[in-house]
Amino acid sequence: MGTIDPTARVEDGAVIGEGTTIGPYCIIGRNVVIGESCNLIAHVHVMGHTSIGADCTISPFAVLGGAPQDLSYRGEPTRLEIGSGCTIREGVTMNVGTVKGGGLTRVGDGGYFMNNSHVGHDCMVGNNVIFATSATLGGHCEIGDFVYIGGLSAVHQLTRIGPQVMVGGVCGVRGDIIPFGLANGQYAALEGLNIIGMKRRKFTKERLAKVRAFYQSLFHGPGIFAERLNSVQPLAAEDPAIAEILAFIAQGKHRALCLPADSGNKH
After folding, report:
1. Domains in the chain, start-ordered, CATH in brackets?
2. Of the candidates 181, 159, 178, the residue with the CA atom closest to the CA atom of residue 168
């Protein structure tokens, strides 16, 4: 059975799921929906049109559903949706969307957001992500499942990070990172594949060998990048991961592709 501490303020209209605990000095707005068996430890502020799934733990001084940090915002009833089973540590901020961005910021299930990490307006964040301390997303980013973003790293607005990517610490991410990529550096550059993550996702040695060979051909083969990209298209039939990477590249729109720093690649 959940409890609401007498010092908490829960506005009329808020929906609190069964078994959820609202700790001391929390503030819950009237348009908030919180699922079952959540634990808001203390000093949590949930505002705006925000929904939170079941079994989430939210630490002190997290602010969820705040207005987007966008000068065009005029108080429209845009939304933030957070999935189930998330851990949101101290000082985390997540903003609602903007009308021009579709009106929705979405965070998937099972995420672990370390202290002072930030999800900007209109971002789409997948399942089972880990944001280390002060990892930051600008607006309109797309983050795939099982992504790890290192501490103090910042992702430029409108950037895409594919599933199962690992981004090192203290990186400025200014380009789209392919699925399964490993990126590092002051201005993030592609260093290879996230082999550890792929093994955790049960990639066999044979699959790893195929994807590695594809990666070498695409990013370190002879000729310019556009020619190599065209030449590896038939390899999509060899492995679903290769097909996923090629589809991701084809869907690029706003940001350039994150490439290896030392390859001399040109689009």
Report:
1. 9-140 (2.160.10.10), 199-250 (no CATH)
2. 181
